[in-house]
Design goal:
With 382 residues, the chain is an alpha/beta fold. The chain is built from 9 helices and 18 strands. Strand 17 and strand 18 form a beta hairpin. Helix 5 runs parallel beside helix 8. It is globular and about 60 Å long. 53% of the residues are buried.
Length: 382
């Protein structure tokens, strides 16, 4: 058996944190546009009913409903004049209203090399993530390159596309960090299966609604398949942006309601942790170089959980060409792959998995937790 957990790892039932949505009065002067209306959380049958009530109210106020979701949060996307938002907010089932801003970005990559499996000593572990699924929420994956073929089949077993097949190299490069089958440059968890969740537009930007749509698809996929699913997220937005609270709320629900570990990049700002890495139930990852020194770009803060190698990483682009990349975008899938290795033998609840990785991390920097390294370097061997 790979690991045995002491009783202390099984932590008490978590409480959903209270976030603070933007003032509806501040929104009322933004003009007609797309807004996300968040509805009170209720069990599935009632959730559909109250959503219908809110939709009727939106239409009464001259709004046009564009889309709706129940997972991971109960929300409606509508085009409506902002002057009607205060009245909409008075509807008893409306919890909050957010502008659907195009503010989320995959983190920039810096083309620069490292034998991650060797550094982490993963080759000594009798597990490779077999039977575990990692959802890559990103710019799309070219699942047909040789490096992502296991035998005669792709490691990508299902896909969800909002804007295209693979709109930039980022998603394929992230996927190969997890499950590359290349004999010389294998992924961290080459036995894992992948879900390709393409929610970004060309240029690496997207809006909050697209992220929620992607996460919703992952939650529904897990509910209809008997598989352990990990979600890898190498993107972020400014933590003080208006829709950031909704993104945090949605991420927390993915963990608490659907049992999906949410591994998230801290960001490449070199300063504070970006959203959704600052959500209470995100497992947030920074980056170090091969000398275990913090990367200059790695975002730091009290929200950080661990660091992993994210400087000079060899991976493959959508043409199957070997490239060298850096960024928390690539330390994050390395940790997702480490989660998959553990989950092959012991399918832990998300918060138990988090606590295991915090406790076994190799301490770096100031003794104990610190804002630069979190709990330390991810150590799947331990």
């Amino acid at each position: 058996m790979l690991i045995a957990l002491p009783v202390a790892y099984y932590i008490s039932k978590p409480v959903t944190p209270s976030y603070h949505p933007p003032s509806v009065m501040a929104l009322s002067e933004m003009g007609r546009g797309e807004y996300i209306i968040q509805i009170e959380e209720l069990p599935a049958p009632q959730a559909v009913e109250v959503q219908a009530v809110v939709i009727q109210k939106i239409q009464t106020l001259g709004g046009e409903v564009i889309d709706k979701e129940i997972h991971p949060v109960n929300v409606v996307l509508a085009e409506i004049d902002s002057s009607r938002l205060p009245e909409l907010m008075r509807e008893r089932y409306v919890k909050a209203i957010y502008p659907n801003q195009k503010i989320v970005k995959v983190f920039d990559e810096i083309y620069t090399l490292s034998d991650v499996r060797g550094l982490l000593k993963i080759n000594t572990i009798p597990a490779n993530g077999s039977g575990v699924v990692v959802a890559v929420v990103d710019t799309g994956i070219n699942e047909n390159i040789p490096q992502l073929m296991r035998g005669n089949k792709s490691v990508v077993i299902d896909k969800y596309e909002l804007y295209g097949d693979y709109v930039s190299p980022h998603g394929t490069e992230v996927a190969c960090c997890i499950a590359s089958q290349d004999p010389k440059y294998p992924g961290v968890a080459r036995g894992a299966d992948l879900l390709d969740v393409e929610v970004f537009q060309k240029g690496g930007f997207t809006d909050i609604w697209s992220i929620i749509k992607g996460w919703s698809w992952v939650a529904r996929w897990k509910m209809t398949h008997d598989r352990y699913v990990i979600c890898s997220n190498s993107f972020g937005c400014e933590p003080n942006s208006m829709p950031a609270e909704l993104l945090r709320n949605a991420l927390d629900n993915m963990v608490l309601r659907y049992g999906i570990p949410m591994v998230v990049a801290s960001g490449n700002s070199g300063s504070y942790v970006l959203c959704p890495g600052d959500a209470k139930y995100a497992f947030t990852v920074g980056a170090v170089d091969k000398t275990n020194y913090i990367a200059s770009f790695s975002s730091c803060g009290k929200e950080l959980d661990v660091v992993a190698y994210g400087v000079n990483i060899k991976t493959f682009n959508p043409s199957g060409e070997l490239v060298k990349v850096s960024g928390t975008s690539f330390s994050t899938p390395i940790v997702s792959g480490c989660f998959a290795i553990v989950a092959e033998k012991t399918k832990l609840p998300p918060l138990t998995m988090y606590e295991l990785f915090r406790t076994t991390a190799r301490d770096l920097g100031t003794p104990g937790f610190d804002n630069q390294y979190g709990y330390g370097l991810v150590d799947v061997v331990s």
